[in-house]
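TEACHING EXERCISE
Course module: macromolecular assemblies
Task: Read the component lines below, then compare them to the predicted structure of the full complex.
Student: A.B.
Group: 4
Components provided:
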Amino acid sequence: MTNLDEFKVEELEQRLEMAKWSASLSGSNSDGGTVTGTVKVEF
Amino acid sequence: MKNLAFLCCFLFTHLAASQNYIYDSQTKAPIEAVNIYFDNGLGVITNEDGLYEIPDQRNIDSFTVSHLSYKDKTLALIDIKVGDTIYLTNSPIVLDEIVLQNVSPKDSVLKAIKKIDENYINIPHNTFGFFRQSLQEQDKGVEMIEVEFIGYNDNKKVSTEIISARRTENYSKLGLKTHGGVAAIFNNGDFVRNRAHFLDIDKLDAYAFKFEGQITYQGMQFYKISFYPIVDDVEVLRKGDLYLDTKSLAIAEIRYTYDKDKLADISKESEKGISTKKPFYRLKDVNNLIRYKQLPSGKWDLIYIEAYNLREGIFKGKSYYYHLRAKLIINSIKTKKPTKVRTNYNLTKDFSQIVKKFDNLDRWDDNYRLSLSNNEKQILRDIKSQQENTKSN
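Instructor-supplied answer key:
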């Protein structure tokens, strides 16, 4: 049986360090005043 | 020189991130949600086109493709060329053995719940994954969010640190935003750890359980048990299938939908609150998949969640249909010396407002961790077209 194996530590730490995309999290967290409806994923 | 050319060709064919497919051998149709486990510890999954990508990593020699309804296959990477299709054959479901064993499906589920602490990882660990959420309004793409994250699960709660995230502009005509995000998916979608709904011992009597058969998966035997609500309570509305390892009774997979009649009752009740000033949303359909994976230690852990919600938005007498899809894959798990991470965003805010916009959609590249499906590529094209329309106006 093949299993999902342990993750390589080096890659883990590298990924913690770097953000690959130019977009990331916003610092402002503004709600923008344009939200007329919010929904969440239903489980 | 000839040898060098051959070597370059070889490296490109076998080592570059390559797109490949998995199809059903009989129907020749693509198979969605097939897990692909590489021998270096990484895992990916096929999308609805049966597409998966082999990452550009030189430490992969072989991989196993695995799906509960099909026979596993292990292949050497050297035998796979870019664009190759792997065909899987159905795994037969056998009912006779269960009938002979005279096992009660409800008792099996009860025992499975009692064994959750024993069967699932109970030590702190990291998870590394990818999350995509897309929204279509009237079949037209209006928003996409992608997140790459590291999770830290200390067995009490899951923290998620987002490494990178991006979203498109939201072009929903009603301004519909999606609340929550990757942490919410973890917290709400891990039914086994949450002992949610039909896995809540106190609520088991509200459901009927029925053996559908026994199947062989990854060399183990699994019970397929269907469940459905048997009480009038409209909140008890989930129905679907559970897959249990016959030996440990670990729950490997859950697939369920909502009872449509009860959903209709709920939305009828909520219509009393309809306002003429704000859009009114009602849920029309839910179809979710939650999958767990056994690790080398023998313990199980969450590996994949796929959620589909159909909503109707009503505003000023007009109806809009919203298809919300969320996919969360755990590509790898680390149990040795896990790194503590903290959730680096405000969980109470609208997730789409927290993730920064990524306007250059031409540069929205595919990611092997969760390959974009044709439908998702179309969503991006729809959004780009609306972006261009907005700019030209």
